[in-house]
Amino acid sequence: MTILVETHADYRLITLNRPERLNALTVEMAEALSTALDAAEADKSCRALLITGAGRAFCAGQDLTAIVGIAPAEIGNLLDHYNPLIAKLRALPMPVVCAVNGVAAGAGANLALACDIVLAGEGASFVQAFARIGLIPDCGGTWFLPRLVGMARARALAMLAEPLPAATAAEWGMIWQVVADDRLMAEAHALAARLAGAATLGLALTKRALDAAETNDLDNQLELERDLQEEASASPDHTEGVRAFLEKRQPVFTGRRS
Ligand code: T3D
Questions:
Q1: pLDDT at residue 73 is higher than 90
Q2: How far is the CA of 95 from the centre of ligand 1 (A)?
Q3: CA of residue 102 to ligand 1 center, whole Å
């Protein structure tokens, strides 16, 4: 099994599972991941996702043994499998936490950056390895990097292909937090559980608004916020949040849309 899916009370853990190849990606794996995302979305009790890698790495990017000697058109075909996966991950109507447990290279680094909140173990690193093999950062790399770290750092990361230690990635705002390696999964599970207990629709709409903000001007963004806020305010979780505040107690969110 190229990925493992573990169901918890109200979130799922997906583990990339080719540790002998540092979880390098194959088309089969991308398809399995895509199916797992669909299943998580279809399960109304699933309100958050956690993604990590088996073994000592998060993901070494494309499995290079699978692309030796293939025609350029085939590379394009390969990305026809990966691109929808990145888009689906980004649009998933629930928070996605990534626990980067070791090196995240090439498409593996950008898979991590596509997630909503990225935690990394202190031994982890991010490598835009593409330049080493004459390729460009794909799986959203050229989109995520400049937005997260600014164009100067994005260019150097992409062109030098040097490993960026997790601590620097956090310092630069590329990821959320670095935690001790032996605490990573405990912290990541706690974060996923916390998000799974939050107002799911509000978080899903927040994701949409933040992504749209990357291309909208202020007027369009204000308009979008207005529409999405109307949708969020119709949710039972909004009613519960306000009631809990007024009653001076913790809210109990259900994640229901109506
Ligand atoms: O082509 C396209 O356009 C399609 C999309 C492409 C997107 C991409 O992701 S392109 C970038 C592909 N990834 C890379 O170039 C990274 C290649 N790997 C590395 O640079 C290093 O392995 C790491 C920096 C990730 C880790 O280094 P290290 O020293 O910790 O481990 P290692 O010894 O290099 O690797 C351990 C094993 O995993 C090794 O196998 P062996 O010798 O024990 O049998 C190595 O060959 C294998 N491995 C690592 N990465 C890949 C891989 N096997 C296949 N594909 C890999 N990407």
A1: no
A2: 29
A3: 13
CB neighbour list of residue 126: distance below 8 Å, 6 or more residues apart: 100, 103, 104, 105, 109, 112, 120, 157, 163, 164, 166, 169, 174, 175
Helix axes 236-246, 200-213, angle to 10 degrees: 110
With left for phi above 0 and alpha for psi between -120 and 50, is residue 161 left, alpha or beta? left
Q: How far apart, in whole angstroms, are the C-alpha atoms of residue 133 and residue 31?
A: 24
Q: Which residues pair with 97 in a beta bridge?
A: 50, 117
To the nearest whole number, what is the mean pLDDT of the chain?
97
Question: Whose CA is closest to 250, among 238, 240, 258, 236?
Answer: 240
For residue 136, the model assigns a pLDDT of 97
Closest atom of ligand 1 to CA, residue 107? 9
Quote the pLDDT of residue 76: 85
From CA 227, how far away is CA 39, in angstroms rounded?
Answer: 28
Question: From the alpha carbon of 133, which atom of ligand 1 is closest?
Answer: 15
Q: Which helix (H) or strand (E) holds 115?
A: none
User: Considering only CA atoms, which residue is closest to atom 50 of ligand 1?
Assistant: 60
